[in-house]
């Protein structure tokens, strides 16, 4: 796993952990407790988009 991929994954995971502790959000408990994993997945998606954009600029 590359450095940027790990960075965006961890940022998404940490944001998801903050969502778990926000009790005032109108989310179901299951969704709130799965938020760190959703955040990690979103971080991977963002990293993939950034890598594709960098590849297109190089070509």
The major sheet is characterized as: none
Shape: elongated
Radius of gyration: 14 Å
Return the structural class: mainly alpha
Q: Topology as H/E string?
A: HH
Low-pLDDT segments, ≥5 res: none
Number of helical stretches of at least 4 residues: 2
β-strand amount: under 5%
Mean pLDDT: 87
Percent range for helical residues? over 70%
- Give the tally of β-strands: 0
CA(first)-CA(last) distance: 24 Å
Protein name: XapX domain-containing protein
Keywords: Membrane, Transmembrane, Transmembrane helix
Give the key terms.
mainly alpha; 83% helix; transmembrane helix; 2 helices; 59 residues
Topology:
Blueprint lengths: L2 H19 L7 H30 L1
Helix pairs in contact: 1-2
Notes on the structure:
It is a single chain. The chain is mostly helical. Helices cover 83% and strands 0% of the residues. Helix 1 runs antiparallel to helix 2. The longest helix is centred in the C-terminal third of the chain and has 30 residues. It is elongated and about 45 Å long. The mean pLDDT is 87. This is XapX domain-containing protein. Keywords: Membrane, Transmembrane, Transmembrane helix. It comes from Brevibacillus porteri.
